[in-house]
């Protein structure tokens, strides 16, 4: 499994964070979902022909072919934001980065004075979270409760909307910041490309003769951490847990053997499949990944990608640039800004069809 390196990068290859910047008017950052999931817009980017086409997401079946395979991330978002106070009285906001045990978690703390190991945080119901220590900007917490942490979150937690959504989560987010096929709890951020699919659209896709498969990758809050290194190669990715099962590996093998395309729904699917690829061969894998995909890395696991629009200078923007080429992606983003597409988690989407099957 690839961990933090980018294979196929030539010696002396240099990529700067600033190479992935673009101008984004703040009003294009979506603050809430549309009334209908599949009512979002879809930018078709056909790299082979160099064309861009404005579509609606509900048009996706028209762009697929019988025999294609769509691969989704079935992770389920936990209500990972908690509120409490230190025993001394100061307010504390807890954002779970990942659950590490039945009663343990790694978290970010919003608090005026950072607590030390042994410090206690009183939650809204009076239960206690004890600080075990720090790992950089993250805190290790143990929840002193009878019930497992996941149940505590379901009872007390709030959906962890991304930092660029400038409002508190409401009841609507409980449903809409979750895909309709979510089933494996563990994420603290949504695999947002999947948010555009509703049951009606999925049924139309199945009726077309398109197969569907699933990976699990529990998206962590680290996905929103800014890149601090100027040279992309110096950036160390956060860790995320994933599972690529033997059944999906066989689905992909059969799809490719029959001449179909493997199309990832979201960058998390690409990360999972590339992490499970060893020497160019996809194999079942369950465990952690720190894989960092940026231009110079050759993606071999998918032949297309459905994805939302990503933050400037972000690792996700670098991943899609590895798929389609940096200038092609940045040109498409400038086009999307001019066409007033909605950006980020609750925004619109793009279907990228690369120049050739990436498995070739």
UniProtKB/TrEMBL annotation:
Superkingdom, natural source: Bacteria
Broad class of the protein's primary localization: cytoplasm
EC main group: transferase
Pathway(s) per entry: tRNA modification; tRNA-queuosine biosynthesis
Coiled coil: none
Keywords: Cytoplasm, Isomerase, Queuosine biosynthesis, S-adenosyl-L-methionine, Transferase
Catalytic function, reaction form: 7-aminomethyl-7-carbaguanosine(34) in tRNA + S-adenosyl-L-methionine = epoxyqueuosine(34) in tRNA + adenine + L-methionine + 2 H(+)
Localization (cell): Cytoplasm
Enzyme Commission code: 2.4.99.17
GO CC annotations, alphabetized: cytoplasm
GO MF term list: S-adenosylmethionine:tRNA ribosyltransferase-isomerase activity
Any one biological process term the GO annotation gives: tRNA queuosine(34) biosynthetic process
Pfam short name (any one): Queuosine_synth
Function: Transfers and isomerizes the ribose moiety from AdoMet to the 7-aminomethyl group of 7-deazaguanine (preQ1-tRNA) to give epoxyqueuosine (oQ-tRNA).
Subunit structure: Monomer.
Alphabetical list of PANTHER family matching this protein: S-ADENOSYLMETHIONINE:TRNA RIBOSYLTRANSFERASE-ISOMERASE
Family: Belongs to the QueA family.
Protein name: S-adenosylmethionine:tRNA ribosyltransferase-isomerase
Native source organism of the sequence: Luteibacter rhizovicinus
Gene designation: queA
